[in-house]
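Morning run. Coffee first, then this:
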Amino acid sequence: MVGDMNAPQPMPRPATYQDVLDAPPHMIAQIVHGALHLQPRPAFPHSQAHSALQAEIASAFGRRRGGPAGPGGWRILFEPELHLGEEVLVPDVAGWRRERMPALPATAWSDVVPDWVCEVLSPSTWRFDLTAKREVYAEVGVPHLWIVNPVARTLESFALREGSWVLAAALSGGDPVRLAPFEAVEWPLSELWDEEPPAGT
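And here it is:
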């Protein structure tokens, strides 16, 4: 007997944290607006920019004694798992002021909203990062968001204003970077790229 194609279909259940735990080990699992999102590990240009960015920020701000030119006072973490209400997110890099996170949680995740997050775009994630994931960061009140594009060699800095993202700066190539909330230290954006692109590109 052929089923009634017009019969109401069961609604898919919202994703749960068990779905995150059950995800394949080579995938990054996140939950946004009730849906499970799986993404593969990024390509090397993404990893290069990701690692270099964390090194620049953490060396100046993430150590308790501070870096050579700027104060510490931050916790800078690589791909932390965030439980923000019903959402489960894994930003590429996130930072908390130490007064808001005096001690690291003993769990594998944190429910403390970061003071800053950075997403490094890749072909498999850019649409998700720039839409649903960016919307959630605004909804939960992350005050600062950076978006790095390793292919275009750009960095965009956004500030949260009345629940919406406002573009604060757009940098490219080897521009000097001195952006909130890390404006105490300047560094060249070219540190994020493997090498300078050929002339004329």
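The first strand starts at residue 27 and ends at 32. Good start to the day.
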